[in-house]
Amino acid sequence: MSIPDGQTDAFGNRNSSHCIFPDRMKKIIVAIDGYSACGKSTTAKKVAEKLKYAYIDTGAMYRAVTLYFHQNYVTLTHPREIAEALQNIQIQFKHNPKTQKSETYLNGLNVEEEIRKMYISENVSEVSAVPEVRKALVAQQQKMGQKRGIVMDGRDIGTKVFPDAELKIFMNADMTVRAHRRQLELMQKGDLVDLDDIVANLKHRDLLDTTRKESPLVQSPDAYLLDTTYITVDEQIEFVVNLAISKMIEKEKNSNGHA
Ligand code: DC
Fold this sequence. Notes:
By secondary structure, this protein is of the alpha/beta class. The chain has a single domain, classed as 3-Layer(aba) Sandwich (Rossmann fold), CATH 3.40.50. It has helices at residues 40-51, 58-71, 79-87, 118-128, 131-144, 157-161, 175-188, 195-211, 233-255, and strands at 29-34, 54-57, 91-96, 101-106, 109-110, 150-154, 167-172, 224-227. The strands form 2 sheets. The chain has a 5-stranded parallel beta sheet with strand order 2-6-1-7-8. A 3-stranded antiparallel beta sheet has the order 3-4-5, covered by helices on one side. A hairpin with a 4-residue loop joins β3 (91-96) and β4. α7 crosses α8 (195-211). The two termini are 29 Å apart.
């Protein structure tokens, strides 16, 4: 993480040899959970960049599985079909140097654009409620975070994937704000969707995500609540980065035998 001469970074550090550099400190896990379209991915991506951590968008993994099931006519009521399909799915994230973004690959094909489309959003909550799907993806996610130094966003990261994460954030925002943000996001990709349809989709997904049997979306008691209704993206990022730094310092102190 480089800071231009004489300037301060997001943590208020000056460019001097006395700065606290997160990349030299003990690595932690930052788990960001919450409702759809609250700014989880935008925040998580930037926080990872600032901490020089890996970023994993677990929603993209569930979306990729949904795309595969759609393309291969997998029936959600047939456990054998599901188990077979899961054996044939390989999900990877690759950095695109042109866009400077991490993109999702399904069995070697870039599906980043496809998985964000409405027909996937309309089916992903049903697919992600299937216990076999969750088991397979949670195992992969836990592997990805084995060495810590990761920012992961989703619905069950702080409760199921990494219950021992050093920092847990739970994000929420007003429904109208969430729907407007999602509409803008889709519009920027050339997808014009009616606001009412987006609200209906978000409500439907909230209901399924919070009431499913397997790892429902719930705020972990030790998670910090971040309501993004009235704050900017920069403020969201700063909130999480500052907490991450204090958790790293805490970890550093504990490993040095301080109280
Ligand atoms: O974050 P997103 O909107 O791209 O997520 C898509 C869906 O995937 C969401 O409706 C719920 C599901 N999901 C999940 O069940 N568990 C996760 N860890 C991440 C996403």
